[in-house]
């Protein structure tokens, strides 16, 4: 249960195809370039991000990448948690080279897992951070002089033993919702930051319920993979 793939779908190279940045228990960041939809969506073999000195990027253990433009320069940064609760920021430099911006937030949580999006509708990015013990915090963003600042937070009672949050407009109504992957492999839904059941499918799983189940320690992300205008569900 300590191993896991932590996917972050994004068009990293700007070619209009989904690429995948993936975190891992080893703390590194893996990049898979998307080659397009055939019978399944196809990705190239993994390559590693490096720092300005040519060293492979690593945050120690349990990298958990997400992307967001927190400094409003029009280019997404890569934001990732680590096993000690730190949230790191990396800016794109050239190709697979990232410029380490250091730690932007210390949460004190075990295996911090961030997701970034406007959750309260004020036009400023917020950050949801989950953890191994199930605690989740919502850090409401304030626009600073150069970037979004994440200070005050609200604790969400998830009722889960493991929690990987995802802020996304999955239903296409123009308003972001809050979801979270769980230890049991389910995808939890939250309404007004209160647990509101799980995403269900039309078939029963081996546990005898209709909850979509993806092994254990699920990591959900919503992204329009096939370009049909509808969000698809990507789960590590």
UniProtKB/TrEMBL annotation:
InterPro entries: FG-GAP (IPR013517), Integrin_alpha_N (IPR028994). Keywords: Signal. The keyword Methyltransferase does not apply. This is VCBS repeat-containing protein.
């Amino acid at each position: 249960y300590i191993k896991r793939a932590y996917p972050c779908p994004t068009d990293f190279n700007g070619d209009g195809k989904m690429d995948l940045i993936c975190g891992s228990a080893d703390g590194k960041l893996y990049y898979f370039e998307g080659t397009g939809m055939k019978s399944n969506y196809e990705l190239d073999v993994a390559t590693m991000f490096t720092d300005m000195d040519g060293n492979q990027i690593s945050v120690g253990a349990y990298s958990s990448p997400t992307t967001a433009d927190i400094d409003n320069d029009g280019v997404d940064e890569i934001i990732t948690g680590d096993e000690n609760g730190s949230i790191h920021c990396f800016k794109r430099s050239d190709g697979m080279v990232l410029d380490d911006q250091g730690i932007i937030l210390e949460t004190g949580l075990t295996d911090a897992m961030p997701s970034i999006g406007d959750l309260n509708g004020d036009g400023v990015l917020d950050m949801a951070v989950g953890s191994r013990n199930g605690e989740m915090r919502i850090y409401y963003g304030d626009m600073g002089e150069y970037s979004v600042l994440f200070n005050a937070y609200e604790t969400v009672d998830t009722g889960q033993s493991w929690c990987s949050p995802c802020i996304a407009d999955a239903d296409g109504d123009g308003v972001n919702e809050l979801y979270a992957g769980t230890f049991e492999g389910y995808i939890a839904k939250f309404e007004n930051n209160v647990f509101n059941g799980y995403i269900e499918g039309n078939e029963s799983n081996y546990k005898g319920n209709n909850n979509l189940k993806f092994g254990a320690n699920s990591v959900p992300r919503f992204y329009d993979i096939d370009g049909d205008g509808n969000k698809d569900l990507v789960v590590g």
